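Have a think about this chain, C-alpha cells included, and walk me through the fold.
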Amino acid sequence: MEKILVIPHPIEISEKQIRFLKDELSKYNVKLVYYTDEPSNDEELINRISNANYLIIAVLPLNADILSKAKNLEYISITFTGYDHVDINYCKANNIKVSNVAGYSTTAVAELTIAMAIMLYRQLIPQYLSFKLSGDKINKPGREIYNKTWGVIGYGNIGKKVTEYAKSLGANIIVHTRSLHPEASNIDFVSKQHLIANSDIISIHMPLNNETKHFISFREFDQMKDNTILINTARGLIVNQEALIDALINKKIAGAASDVFEIEPPLDPQYPLLHIDNFLALPHIGYYTEEALEKRADIGIDNFLNYLNGKITNEVC
C-alpha cells in the first residue's frame, strides 16, 4: 500500500535534494507531495496534511487541533533545531515520532553572534546612516572586544563555537550552563548571578523550555553593568521583552541585539523594539546561510529515510 510524504510548505530545499528524495522514495513505495507556497490558513494546512503518513516541515506551527486531523500521521521530520512550534505532548500521546535537525547552523549562528557584538560595539549602523546622510561620522567612539568579559549563557554546540570565536578576539570568557562539562577544564564556569553582574557582553545560547522562559528579566537587567550589551540568537521568550524595553529605554544597559522575538517574523512594523535606538533587530537570519540551509535539508531527509529503515535519528519523541 502506497504511503504519502507531505512537505506542506517551503523548507528551503534545493531541486537537487528533491530529486534525490524522490529517487529514494521510489524504493519504499512512498509518494511525495511538495507545496512551494505557505498555507494561507489552518483549513488549507489541514487539507494538505490530512492524508499524510509522514511530514517534513521547517517552522510551521502544528497544534493539537491541526495534528488531530491527520489521522494517518506517524512521523514528522522537523528541519529545524527548535521544535516548540509543534505540539510534542500531542505527538507523544498519539505515538507520532518526531525528529529535529541539530547542529546544522552552529557556525552560522555563532558567526552572527560575533557580528552583532561588533555591530553594537562599533556602532556600525548608526555610523553608516550618519555617513550616508551627512557625509561624516557620529562623534562617539566605539569599543573593542579585546580584554572584555564575555559571558556565554549555555554551552552547547553554539555556545562552544561562540566561546572559540570570542577567545580569538581576545575576550575573557565566563560561562553559565545548567549542564556539567567535565571535559572543558579550561573554561571558567560561573553562577548565573556572577555572569550577569560581571560581563561586558552577554550572549544567550540555550533552548526555550519552562525553566528558561524569561531567564533574563527585570531582576537580571537591574544586576547588569550599565555598559553591558546583550545578544540573543537563541529564542525570543528567554528574554522578557517588557524588561528588555525597560532596560534599553532607561539605559540600564548600553544596548542589545536580537535575532529572535516572542513571535516569528514578519513582525508588525510598529513592534516596540523596532523603534528603540540602542537595539539592533534582525529578522531571524542566524541560520540563514546557503551552507546551513543545504546541511539542514540533508539532515532532515536523512532523518526521514532512517525512519523508513526502522531507525530514529535526532529523536525528539
About this structure: The chain has a mean pLDDT of 96. Residues 290-308 form the longest helix (19 residues). The chain has two domains: 3-104+290-308, 106-281.
